[in-house]
Design brief:
The protein is mainly α. Among the domains are: about 240 residues, no CATH class; about 70 residues, Serine Threonine Protein Phosphatase 5, Tetratricopeptide repeat, CATH 1.25.40. The chain is built from 24 helices and three strands. The longest helix is centred in the C-terminal third of the chain and has 20 residues.
């Protein structure tokens, strides 16, 4: 079941989504749901997702998942929207394309994957729905459904069919409306065909689509017994599996693809799994897998055990395991960042710095390395240098709540209290705490020393909060 941060948020979700643009939808496609309307619903839906669920804000996970998304969009061509990809801490075997290019991948789905190809197949499928504007078309063709009701139902379907999901669509005409909004067989086939085409363009073997649909079919056997058909995000996996197998067969035996490199995927998968699961439920599984051999899957199980030990403050065990992973893959600089992060957490700053320098020299794009380097500089007392690095990360990680809080505290410590209040306001807003967000943003506006650009940002965000509070 999705984990709502507070019970009252569910009530707010009902009221808020039901109030979004409560006008009858046009009955003809000539007056279809516009790009602007789709963006508005998407923006409001994202606000509630951020307030209601735990979105994994690990810079490493965020960069990886969005890099995969950008690789897909590069071959997909020009788009209507700026896409944003999120990993949600939720056990459901689900992924969902929400209005305006917002794509949510549940941690339970990532946990079930074995390769980057499987992840690409799912993300490309979701991008196919957005590119084809299936969501807006479904809404436009539901002549008796208001956009507000549609948004409510989209949220319910996106949650993957749990009890809260069903509750969201309970009410007059909700089930029938949800049936109208559910992706049709034609929608699913079009998204699958686009995914297949894009995977070929990326030289990623589409056989991964077959393996993912096989898993979906097995899981659907018991899911469909408990979930109403109008809440099935991606229905009829058996039929989808059949025509995907035909696509693979018709592609011919002579087609070649790049050799799969699953290191980055499996490493991120372990980070997501350890961040979202009780260690007692995964430790034995990782231990068995780690003992199976020295292949990538076994080594990444050791990596997962290292993360569990680190989270439990067993730093010696974590170091031993992590060094074993580094010995198996010495050419992966990101592992040096992992070891540096462990050293920082255990108070070994001077040992962390050379590792970070080496990792950054090998891969200057890594947001995780830059973030960890900023933490090291902060520990070293180099607040000005640390702040500069954190600020460099802000455009890349605009919704990272802890980054906003760290910048806010550093700005305050360096005497710029008004600016500090702005970033703390953003932190609380991203955490779903409108009351504290409003307090800090109001303090920013009351500080005459704050530069105009920050004042404009604070005023705009405060106005958004006030507007949303009224609608809630």
């Amino acid at each position: 079941m999705p984990k709502f941060k507070t019970p009252i948020t569910l009530v707010a979700l009902f009221a808020f989504l039901a109030g979004i643009m409560p006008l009858p939808l046009p009955t003809s496609t000539s007056q279809a749901f516009s790009v602007g309307e789709e963006k508005e619903v998407g923006e409001k839906l994202l606000t509630l997702v951020r307030k209601s669920f735990h979105v994994i804000d690990d810079p490493d996970v965020t960069q990886y998942i969005n890099d995969v998304g950008r690789r897909i969009l590069t071959v997909a061509g020009p788009q209507y929207f700026d896409y944003h990809f999120f990993v949600i801490s939720d056990k459901e075997f689900n992924a969902f394309a929400a209005p305006s290019g917002l794509i949510f991948i549940h941690s339970g789905l990532i946990e079930a994957m074995n390769s980057e190809g499987e992840l690409i197949s799912v993300m490309a499928h979701e991008c196919g729905h957005v590119t084809s504007r299936h969501i807006s078309d479904r809404i436009s063709k539901s002549a008796k459904t208001s956009i507000g009701t549609a948004a409510l139902l989209i949220a319910g379907i996106a949650m993957g069919g749990g009890a809260l999901s069903q509750a969201l669509v309970t009410g007059s005409m909700a089930a029938n409306a949800a049936m109208n909004l559910k992706f049709s067989r034609e929608d699913e086939e079009e998204a699958d065909r686009l995914s297949f085409k894009w995977m070929q363009a990326m030289e990623s073997d589409p056989v991964s689509m077959e393996s993912m649909l096989g898993k979906m079919q097995r899981i659907s056997v018991y899911r469909t017994a408990n979930i109403p058909p109008y809440l099935l995000t991606h229905p009829e996996p058996k039929q989808r599996l059949g025509y995907v197998q035909d696509l693979i067969m018709n592609a011919g035996q002579g087609k070649t693809y790049k050799a799969s490199d699953d290191f980055s995927f499996l490493r991120v998968k372990q980070r997501v799994t350890v961040a979202t699961k009780d260690p007692s439920t995964i430790r034995a599984l990782f231990t068995r897998k780690a003992e199976e051999g020295k292949d990538l899957q076994s080594v990444m199980a050791q990596y997962g055990l290292a993360l569990i030990a680190q989270n439990g403050a067993d730093y010696a065990k974590a170091e031993t395991l992590l060094k074993s992973v580094i010995a198996a893959y010495p050419d992966r600089p990101i592992l040096k960042t992992d070891l540096a992060a462990l050293y920082l957490q255990s108070g070994r700053l001077q040992e962390a710095l050379p590792l970070l320098n080496a990792s950054q020299a090998a891969d200057s794009r890594s947001l995780y390395t830059k973030y960890t380097m900023a933490q090291a500089l902060e520990q070293q007392g180099e607040q000005k240098k640390a702040l500069a690095l954190y600020q460099d990360l802000l455009p890349e990680l605009p919704d990272h709540a802890m980054l906003q809080r760290t910048v806010g505290n550093l700005e305050t410590n360096m005497g710029r209290k008004g600016v500090g209040h702005y970033y703390l306001g953003r932190h609380f807003w991203l955490e779903g705490d409108a009351k504290n967000a409003r307090y800090h943003l109001t303090a920013t506006l009351g500080d005459p020393t704050v530069d105009p650009p920050i004042l404009v940002k604070a005023k705009t965000l405060l106005a958004d909060i006030e507007r949303l509070d009224k609608e809630l």
